[in-house]
Amino acid sequence: MKRRQKRKVKRKVKRKTRRPAKHAARKAIDRLHRRDMKASASGDFMALRALVDDDAVMLPPGGAPQRGAKDFDAAFERMNASPKTHEVIEYRLDFEEVKVFGNYAVEWGAIRGATREISTGRVIQSEYHVMRMLRRQRNGGWKVWRSIWTPSGP
Question: CATH number for the domain including 106?
């Protein structure tokens, strides 16, 4: 009888030790999401670049794949230097699912937002389906490692 009780105790301890790691990972991923939304809403392209892993690959709708630090540095610098034609009035990440697998995580959901054309004042609503893979960094934070998004339709 004592052997059974000892086995149960060991199993419970093992289960409990895994939860804090997943919880810490989820909290760090939530911080990434908040930083992403804040930088996107304010048009801070250099802050957005800091959220992208140097080995990332992005597959934008209708565009060529972007991969690696050189591509991202150039793309974010171009966006930063471009004249501002739109004002972001809403930007929201709504992930349906986030799954952590060790040093990687997969998430899918939607990007929803609205911008206002500066010249006309016209408001444009947008919504995209998105799937991303994240990679844990040495400091325990997370960055976007793979991303693909597409308009969700009319």
Answer: 3.10.450.50
